[in-house]
């Protein structure tokens, strides 16, 4: 089995290394033909507007849209790309609309507001997962068909709010944080076992 990792910009190498660590062959996706041999795709963290422009200029965006059968896991910027609606995005910013969610870019704040949190994630073992949030998007609305698998309590300018940070809808999985930046492989394993192999 090959799992593709979109390799236009961002931390795609960390995702590829994570896949190799759990015994799955990773394929760096840089052109439409790379989609032919993969059974799932990871959209990595990075700069969502830059990735959007590169998806357009490489024509990869339209080919990904054509692969309706393809399970996709989006992290941070990848979550933004999966969202139905983006707040504070560019007017020409691409999103696939596969997850019925509304997200706000950099909703947790700029780089200086980066943080870590221990999360209990539905479907993973009882041990909490350490999550690394870097300029992370905030999921502001969730559709009826979306399962919230984890949320975090965060203080927005003096007001505490519980915010979804891992969501799933059918073959699409998204996280607002960077699971590839820790040694914990469980969310990648969940994507493979519960999303890719169950389709």
Q: Can you describe this structure?
A:
- The longest helix has 11 residues, at 186-196.
- The chain has 5 helices and 12 strands.
- It has one domain (2-196): Rossmann fold.
- By secondary structure, the protein is of the alpha/beta class.
- It is 22% helix and 35% strand.
- It has helices at 12-21, 48-57, 60-66, 77-82, 186-196; strands at 2-6, 25-29, 40-43, 72-75, 83-87, 99-104, 115-119, 129-133, 138-142, 147-156, 159-169, 172-175.
- It is globular, with a radius of gyration of 15 Å.
- The two termini are 14 Å apart.
- The strands form 3 sheets. Strands 2-1-3-4-12-11-10 form a 7-stranded mixed beta sheet. The chain has a 3-stranded mixed beta sheet with strand order 5-6-9.
Count the strands?
Answer: 12
Helix fraction, binned, reads 10-25%
Oligomer: single chain
Distance between the termini: 14 Å
Largest sheet entry: 7 strands, mixed
Q: Largest sheet, order of strands side by side?
A: 2-1-3-4-12-11-10
Which value, in Å, is the CA radius of gyration? 15 Å
The stretches of 5 or more residues where confidence is low (pLDDT under 50) are none
Say which CATH homologous superfamily is assigned. Answer: Class I glutamine amidotransferase (GATase) domain
Task: Give the helices and strands, then pairings.
Elements: E1 2-6, H1 12-21, E2 25-29, E3 40-43, H2 48-57, H3 60-66, E4 72-75, H4 77-82, E5 83-87, E6 99-104, E7 115-119, E8 129-133, E9 138-142, E10 147-156, E11 159-169, E12 172-175, H5 186-196
Parallel strand pairs: 1-2, 1-3, 3-4, 4-12, 5-6
Antiparallel strand pairs: 6-9, 7-8, 10-11, 11-12
